[in-house]
Structures are given as C-alpha cells and as structure tokens.
Amino acid sequence: MHPPLTLHRHPMCAEIIEEFQKCHLDHPVKKFFGECTDLKIKLDRCFRQEKALKRKANFEESKKFKEQLQAYKREIAEKNEE
C-alpha cells in the first residue's frame, strides 16, 4: 500500500508516479498480473527515501528545539537563584 499519488506532495518521486499511473492506464488488466510491478518497486523505494529525508529533518528540528528549551530552563533557573 502506498500513500495517495499526488505530485505536489511527492516532488522527489514525481517522474516515477507519472510512469506508474501511465502504466496502469495503458494496461488496465495486465496491471493485476504484474505488468507494473517494477515501477511499483521503484515507487516504494522512492517513498522510503523521501520519508527518511523527512525523518532526518524532523529529528534535526527537534534537537534544535530541545536545545532552546534547555537554554530557556537554565535562564529561568538562574533568574530564580538571584
């Protein structure tokens, strides 16, 4: 199962999505017997790479947020000590 194949949400995989959709249109019955399987595999790999990049970006963002939060907590603690 894959996410909805919208080009604006998956710019990294846009070319493969178009090929996959064209294959399904060109082979309405053969698609059930593996005609488009190679494209499906490429598409799945592309989605995995895309997700890994998003995960890495989110992780970096969360690290920055945690650092800011720790700095804020230290600031508050220092002000309370004074």
UniProtKB/TrEMBL annotation:
Highest taxon above the source species: Eukaryota
Family: Belongs to the CMC family.
PANTHER family hit by this protein: COX ASSEMBLY MITOCHONDRIAL PROTEIN, COX ASSEMBLY MITOCHONDRIAL PROTEIN 2 HOMOLOG
Name of the protein in its database record: COX assembly mitochondrial protein
Keyword vocabulary terms for this entry: Disulfide bond, Mitochondrion
InterPro entries (UniProt xref): Cyt_c_biogenesis_Cmc1-like
GO cellular component: mitochondrion
This protein's record includes keyword Secreted: no
Pfam annotation, one family: Cmc1
Locations listed in the record: Mitochondrion
Coiled coil, from the record: none
